[in-house]
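Hey L., structure's done. Input below.
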Amino acid sequence: MIRVEIEAVHDDWEGFRIWIRSHDPTKGMLIARFQPALLYCSSDESNRIAEIQPANQTLGFPHVFWIVDNSELVSIFHRQSCGLHTHSNIRHFAFLSCNQCVDVIAYELPTFSGDVSNQNDRS
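Output:
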């Protein structure tokens, strides 16, 4: 299992990006990019120390990236945007790390660049 932290969340002229860094300094940086993100919220979870138990123990939590089905956040977004995106296929994506949680509402899956594999193993 690779332990990661969310290094940075950027929302600027280059688009919305989440930078994910491994705890292992020999591993690289992973960047998730959304085009566009309709809504995002980031929360510092570093002081929450209770263990999170998923409904399905075979998932091997913690995964970093989740697609949230039947999302309450999507329902809230539809209600607060006055139904503007009701007929759009928007999805809720969640990034959960050791220190931070970032929820994103977007039309499409993010694209990923970089990796957190061992940089010394490359030929």
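The CA atoms of residues 4 and 18 lie 12 Å apart. Strands lie at 4-12, 15-22, 29-34, 37-44, 65-68, 91-96, 100-106, 111-114.

-- N.
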